[in-house]
Design a protein that fits this description.
Mean pLDDT: 96
Oligomer: single chain
Number of strands: 23
CATH class: Mainly Beta
CATH topology: Tachylectin-2, Chain A
Largest sheet: 6 strands, antiparallel
Order of helices and strands: EEEEEEEEEEEEEEEEEEEEEEE
Strand content: over 45%
Shape: globular
Structural class: mainly beta
Number of domains: 1
Radius of gyration: 18 Å
Helix content: under 10%
Distance between the termini: 38 Å
């Protein structure tokens, strides 16, 4: 599959500003393809080499490929991109959207975890071999199903670092489904801190993805969309020590952006540690296969 990439040199329109909150803008890409399957990014995770990635599209497809960089180290394109249909628990492909609305992906030893909206669940696929396999099993999500909104339920799954307080456990956070105290539903699915917790909602923002920093802090990507306020994006940092069963968590906003910046419908976030030791964030947007929206890939460096 051929991907066409137009470089994004600056994050804020009409400005060469590089620093935004706690982040430094490195560069970005506006991505297009003649292949109709490309687009609708939901989530992305990078392999240990920081170059190859696995993603899911909300059309129940797998996305694989690698990033390319220019001599200055900035994003320049995507290579070796493939899109493959995802198999459901019966081994079928192209299943009904309501049952295979893949929204989040996470990697751990020998496994790929996928969170689904609609029929809310976290399925585990084998790695390698996930593109050809049905799920091996389904993780209990712990959340009260009667409080999960059908199209606002499991938006993200992320696997914590093994050496963090969560000891490698997967974590899920709902997009816009709330507990009885109006906190976003969330859960640690395994390990010593297993259980349900709450996330303070930053109205009108909704969680679209999340990723862990090496120290175990959780970054949440949040999106705003309304006709009154327009499109917006924030990234919030939740301290590792705060995440435990029964807790209600909140955190520092690292960056906030609106349509004065190079954003779109921001859906995916991953943390990529560079050979230099710097921590980079890579974000992707969901174009919904619409000519009015874009598939973006943006890269930032986390400042100390």
């Amino acid at each position: 599959m051929t991907i066409f990439a137009k470089k994004i040199e600056t994050f804020r329109f009409g400005s060469d500003q590089r620093l935004f909150g706690r982040l430094e803008f490195i560069g970005g890409l506006d991505l297009t393809s003649n292949n109709a399957l490309f687009g609708a990014f939901s989530s992305i995770r990078f392999r240990a080499d920081g170059e190859h990635f696995v993603g899911v599209l909300d059309t129940a497809h797998w996305l694989e490929g690698r990033i390319e960089r220019d001599p200055g180290g900035r994003l320049s394109g995507l290579g070796d991109v493939t899109v493959m249909s995802m198999k459901d628990r019966q081994g079928r492909t192209e299943s009904a959207k309501a049952l295979m609305d893949s929204e989040g992906v996470a990697l751990r030893d020998g496994q790929v975890l996928v969170s689904f909206e609609g029929d809310a669940r976290v399925d585990i696929y084998p790695d390698p071999g996930f593109t050809q396999s049905r799920p091996l099993r389904t993780l209990p999500i712990l959340l009260p199903r009667d409080r999960l909104k059908r199209n606002r339920s499991l938006e993200m799954v992320a696997v914590s670092p093994k050496e963090s307080p969560l000891a490698g456990a997967p974590v899920i956070v709902a997009e816009l489904s709330f507990d009885k105290n109006d906190h976003l539903l969330a859960a640690v699915l395994e390990g010593p801190r297993k259980g349900v917790f709450g996330v303070v909602q930053k109205d009108p923002f909704a969680v679209t993805d999340g990723a862990f920093l090496p120290n175990g802090d959780l970054l949440l990507l949040e999106r705003r969309f309304s006709f009154a306020a327009g499109l917006g994006m924030e990234i919030r940092r939740i301290k590792a020590d705060d995440i435990r069963a029964g807790a209600v968590v909140d955190g520092e906003v690292l960056i906030s952006a609106d349509l004065g910046y190079q954003i779109d419908n921001m859906e995916g976030l991953d943390v990529v540690v560079q050979p230099s030791g710097d921590t980079h964030l890579i974000l992707v947007s969901d174009d919904n296969h619409s000519i009015l929206e874009r598939s973006l890939m943006l890269e930032f460096k986390l400042l100390p």
